[in-house]
Amino acid sequence: MNKKELVAAVAAKTEMTQVSVEKALKAIIEATVAEVAKKGKVQLIGFGTFEARERAARTGKNPQNGKPIKIAAATVPAFKAGKAFKEAVNAKPAKKKAAKKGKK
Predict the structure, then answer these.
(1) What is the Cβ-side half-sphere exposure of residue 99, based on CA atoms within 13 angstroms?
(2) What is the mean pLDDT of the chain?
(3) Domain total for the chain?
(4) From which residue to which does any coiled coil extend (predicted)?
């Protein structure tokens, strides 16, 4: 699902216009990016948490020649899925019971 499809799906569920949903989604994304850029957290209960994480400096390997290279420390955005989100993704579909054939 891309952004356009997401906007259409939310608009259909909320009976809002696609323009309104797109503005709201843009504002949510901008606010989330701004907060995580300040090293803060955005926690949406049942969905997950967006946060900044520190990644330590390390030594990597150049894939072209195999020589070691230094990779600098970095701050990276991260997402941790919430419990309800994980459960929804891991839910197993209900098994369909086979219809019993009656005697003729």
Answers:
(1) 3
(2) 91
(3) 2
(4) none
